[in-house]
Amino acid sequence: xxxxxxxxxxxxxxxxxxxxxxxxxxxxxxxxxxxxxxxxxxxxxxxxxxxxxxxxxxxxxxxxxxxxxxxxxxxxxxxxxxxxxxxxxxxxxxxxxxxxxxxxxxxxxxxxxxxxxxxxxxxxxxx
Length: 127
Known about the structure:
Layout: H1 2-30, H2 32-40, H3 47-66, H4 72-92, H5 100-126
């Protein structure tokens, strides 16, 4: 019985962590300078805003990975959203360093592979 109680407590703790990380991630994604001001008493500018938002995406993905379900879903969320955000930063923000487009393409390929893996594993779990 104590092992079951410990397992339930761990599951509840992971859900709490998932919610906390995801909320922090959404704050960094949508208002990165505000979060920076609260944490470090300083604003983010330029590429710092982009890094803050990518960090937010990573925290949202960590929240997804901690949520009950397949942890690979967290990496899938991260890769897909980062690919989209890097492409957006390149097109709309004019931030185009030499590795921006290769990084966006790599995350797009990783997204496809992770989605394939997740759907393949889901299909084998059902049968």
